[in-house]
Write a structure and sequence with these properties.
Layout (H helix, E strand, L loop, with lengths): L7 H43 L3 E2 L18 E8 L5 E7 L5 E11 L4 E10 L18 E8 L4 H4 L11 E2 L4 H8 L3 E10 L21 H45 L1
Parallel strand pairs: 1-2, 3-7, 5-8
Antiparallel strand pairs: 2-4, 2-6, 3-4, 4-5, 6-8
Length: about 260
Amino acid sequence: MYRFLLSRQWVILTLLALVLIPVMIELGFWQLHRHQHRVAQNTLIANNLKAKPVPVTELTSPGHTVPRADYWRQVEATGRYDTEHEVVVRRRTNTDETVGFHVLTPFVLADGRAVLVNRGWVPFGADQRTFPDIPAAPKGEVTVTGRLKADETTGTSGIKELSDLPDRQVMLINSEQQATSLGRTVLGGYIEQTAPAAPGGSPQQIPKPDSSSIGAHMAYAVQWWLFTAAVPVGWVILVRREVRDRASAATRSTPERETAAA
């Protein structure tokens, strides 16, 4: 009755089902791991944003790579802005997804070392290659508070470096690159400024990262596992249908043979 399972068509169908089952199980676990990663990231963001600000020099130093555990930690620094070496970071968007620049200003500490401060977003000037009009940073000694971020690289950000950039424009926020142009020691990573707020709201401060959305990864995981369960169920249904159809065909053919014999 089940010899049809040895036919080429059914062997291929069965092998396909056997391949799909582990693949879809693995896809389900992949989505589960993405969900777990997102939950852990949200917890890290929420905890670091709630933490009391600490001096930036407690968490980073020259050449230091900011670890993920310190991303978005609240830090503060006292010093003065070095606006002569201010640059803008190309192709950055604001909350409305409008493309413009981020304003990156070196901030010189009392000991002569500097830390990079991302003061926020400004729109294009005449075009993307023209240096924009930037509201001046406060003069004299000030205290800056913000979120600690790691240096950007092409590998971590996906942003490609360009070799023909206009003067005072960069693609990445990277302390080592800026240390070369500044001619002074620069702390690793940078500060995403949150205070003091710029007069008139420009540069626009970068909004804090979202720590509430977890996405649909768990739903996708469950969906893949339901698909996994559906494969053997579907295979059994198809086999039973084939058996039923073959039995029905055999029943119809029996009277025909008897009539022919008579």
